[in-house]
């Protein structure tokens, strides 16, 4: 029930790292990573590129989540625990999913398995 209520068609959050997946923004941005500094209209964000510090405005469809190394912190961007920070515990490349342990909110310390890649993204330091 909680999963359905918190599952949205928008997932952008401030302070997460995303990867640009459209070549329309030019070769200097394509497949590069940046930090979302501001979310606008739920579906658009201002992204500060990590390598150049350029700021660009992108649509949600033009970026994807970034999965960090095991042990690093992520933000759950969609689903039942949307908005909660967690630690990445394991990566399942065969099922495109991850296991996380919640760090914030009412479920602190709880481990959740098989969360889809697109539902978590690396937190900016």
TrEMBL record:
Pfam families reported for this sequence: KN17_SH3, SH3_KIN17_C
Highest taxon of source: Eukaryota
InterPro entries tied to this protein: KIN17-like, KN17_SH3, KOW_KIN17, Rib_uL2_dom2
Annotated GO CC locations: nucleus
Biological process terms in GO annotation: DNA damage response; DNA replication
Every Kin17 KOW domain range: 68-124
UniProt GO molecular function: double-stranded DNA binding
KN17 SH3-like domain ranges (all copies): 7-59
Record family assignment: Belongs to the KIN17 family.
Protein's UniProt name: KN17 SH3-like C-terminal domain-containing protein
Annotated organism of origin: Adineta steineri
């Amino acid at each position: 029930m909680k999963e359905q209520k918190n599952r949205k068609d928008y997932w952008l959050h401030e302070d997460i790292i995303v990867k640009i997946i459209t070549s329309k923004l030019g070769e200097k941005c394509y497949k590069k990573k940046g930090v979302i500094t501001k979310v606008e209209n739920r579906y658009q964000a201002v992204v500060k590129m990590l390598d150049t510090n350029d700021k660009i405005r992108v649509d949600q469809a033009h970026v994807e989540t970034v999965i960090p190394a095991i042990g690093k912190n992520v933000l759950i961007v969609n689903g039942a625990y949307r908005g909660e920070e967690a630690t990445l515990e394991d990566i399942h490349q065969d099922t495109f999913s991850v296991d996380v342990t919640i760090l914030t909110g009412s479920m602190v310390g709880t481990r959740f398995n098989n969360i889809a890649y697109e539902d978590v993204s690396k937190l900016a330091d």
